[in-house]
Amino acid sequence: MPELLEKPVRPKGHECCGGGCCPCIWDHYYDALGRWEEQQEKLQQQQTKPAEAEQTQG
To answer: 27 lies in which domain range?
Structure first.
Protein backbone atom coordinates (compact mmCIF):
# COMPACT_ATOMS: atom_id res chain seq x y z
CA MET A 1 0.00 0.00 0.00
CA PRO A 2 1.35 3.46 -0.81
CA GLU A 3 2.27 5.82 1.97
CA LEU A 4 -0.71 7.58 3.52
CA LEU A 5 -0.61 11.30 2.94
CA GLU A 6 -1.27 13.70 5.76
CA LYS A 7 -3.91 16.34 5.10
CA PRO A 8 -2.02 19.49 4.17
CA VAL A 9 -2.20 22.42 6.54
CA ARG A 10 -3.78 25.53 5.06
CA PRO A 11 -1.23 28.36 4.91
CA LYS A 12 -1.76 31.25 7.27
CA GLY A 13 -2.36 34.67 5.76
CA HIS A 14 1.10 35.96 6.64
CA GLU A 15 2.81 33.03 4.88
CA CYS A 16 1.95 34.37 1.42
CA CYS A 17 3.85 37.48 0.45
CA GLY A 18 1.29 38.51 -2.17
CA GLY A 19 4.09 39.11 -4.66
CA GLY A 20 2.77 36.78 -7.35
CA CYS A 21 5.39 34.09 -6.78
CA CYS A 22 5.33 31.16 -9.15
CA PRO A 23 4.71 28.77 -7.62
CA CYS A 24 3.00 30.43 -4.71
CA ILE A 25 2.60 28.74 -1.34
CA TRP A 26 -1.08 28.43 -2.25
CA ASP A 27 -0.16 26.49 -5.41
CA HIS A 28 1.75 24.00 -3.26
CA TYR A 29 -1.13 23.78 -0.81
CA TYR A 30 -3.82 23.15 -3.44
CA ASP A 31 -1.65 20.58 -5.25
CA ALA A 32 -1.09 18.69 -1.99
CA LEU A 33 -4.76 19.02 -1.04
CA GLY A 34 -5.81 17.56 -4.38
CA ARG A 35 -3.48 14.57 -3.96
CA TRP A 36 -4.76 14.02 -0.42
CA GLU A 37 -8.42 14.22 -1.53
CA GLU A 38 -7.78 11.71 -4.34
CA GLN A 39 -6.15 9.32 -1.89
CA GLN A 40 -9.02 9.69 0.57
CA GLU A 41 -11.54 8.95 -2.17
CA LYS A 42 -9.66 5.80 -3.22
CA LEU A 43 -9.46 4.62 0.38
CA GLN A 44 -13.19 5.22 0.82
CA GLN A 45 -13.93 3.19 -2.31
CA GLN A 46 -11.72 0.34 -1.09
CA GLN A 47 -13.54 0.28 2.24
CA THR A 48 -17.00 0.19 0.65
CA LYS A 49 -16.18 -2.59 -1.85
CA PRO A 50 -15.62 -5.30 0.82
CA ALA A 51 -18.83 -4.23 2.58
CA GLU A 52 -20.78 -4.51 -0.68
CA ALA A 53 -19.30 -7.97 -1.33
CA GLU A 54 -20.36 -9.16 2.13
CA GLN A 55 -23.92 -7.96 1.54
CA THR A 56 -24.22 -9.85 -1.75
CA GLN A 57 -22.79 -13.04 -0.22
CA GLY A 58 -24.80 -12.96 2.98
So the answer is: 20-45
